[in-house]
Amino acid sequence: MVIVKRATLDDKPVIFKFIQIAYENRWQYKIPERWQWEFVENPFLPDQLLPVWIAVEEDGRVVGQTCALVEPLKIGDEIHRVGWSVDTFLLPKYRGQGIGFQLQKANDEGNEIFMSLSMSKANRRIKAGLGSVPIDPVPAYTRLARYTPESICAAIADRLSRGNDTLKRIITSLFHLLFLDRLFSGLLNIRVRSEDRRQLPQPDESIALSRIDIFDQEINLLWEKVSPKFYAIVKRDDVYLNWKYVQQPYADYFKYIARRNGEICGYIIFRQGKPPERNIGVIVDILALPEDESTIRSMLSFAVLQLIQLKVKDIHAASTVPAYQRQLLKMGFKEAKGAYPMFHYRKDSPVYKAAEEPGSWFLGKGDHDWDQYPLAR
């Protein structure tokens, strides 16, 4: 008989064995460093209990789990804790027996505010059954940075071969031998660079961007100034930003502060995908007053140009903030498939109820674990 329980540190060996089975191709990025950072050393945990729930067989094997990424969340004028639903997995043999529902129910009940961003259809149905409701979708955006000989060759070969694998291999070989893949990609990239010059604005000379290694308390001044503009937003102070973007294992972030006349007016965080990820750029987080279009524009343009110089193939971003969205579209980003969050609160409060209203949320690539390594997208 399988039982569902909240895990303790004593369960870590059997949990790690389960993770090696469940995440066959990327378990080494889940344990032990990320697991420790996410569920043990997280400064926002409300108690000494692990935010991990497991399904355990009679012989002690873990056959399923669900976890919560706990973060500080401002709703209205108050700071609460949110548990983001993460790393939910049930071995195939045990599906369809109600165990997944029991796991999700335990996770939901273990968090006063329970949220999900990216989930399977089955997970979404379970969460809806537990009382979660959909909130503002998070639009995603993507922008071409450059064509590669490989991408051009693959696109042309796919089109000309019409599903014939032998013909596709022949076309691919000919294009490579005749240098046509490099020729076509080079010509197309001339056009791309021309578009860049047209779409990416010149830097605002009144705004200075400086790279930082860690966030000091200066960032709290920005948080205090910007956060009242948003009803529901993860608290982006120095403690949170350093934990999320400095201490997080594996993911290496470029972190920049924007200042106008010496006064902080924004920050932007981005990264380049690294193997086994695709060579893409991700604009992970950006914060500035929504009415400060000059700062938003300067930071986004700077990040795009930096990622282009790193020779990424394309650039990805996401935001619920209309002011940020407008600047992304002006810079050549196209809307792509986004995320559809779910929100559940256990305390009956008009403050929480108001967070269900459209336009309430500040969400982007940095929220949840949407940008975890090695899943850059």
Helical coverage, percent range: 25-40%
Task: Compute the separation of the termini in Å.
Answer: 39 Å
For the sheet with most strands, the description reads: 8 strands, mixed
Strand elements, count? 15
Unreliable runs: none
> What assembly state would you assign to the polypeptide chains in this entry?
single chain
Mean pLDDT equals 92
Order of helices and strands: EHHEEEHEHEEHHHEHEHEEEHEHEEH
CATH level 1 class label of the largest domain: Alpha Beta
Shape: globular
Proportion of beta-strand residues: 25-35%
Number of helices: 12
CATH topology grouping of the largest domain: Aminopeptidase
Please give the domain count: 2
Classified in CATH, the superfamily of the largest domain is Gcn5-related N-acetyltransferase (GNAT)
**How would you classify the helix and strand content by structural class?**
alpha+beta
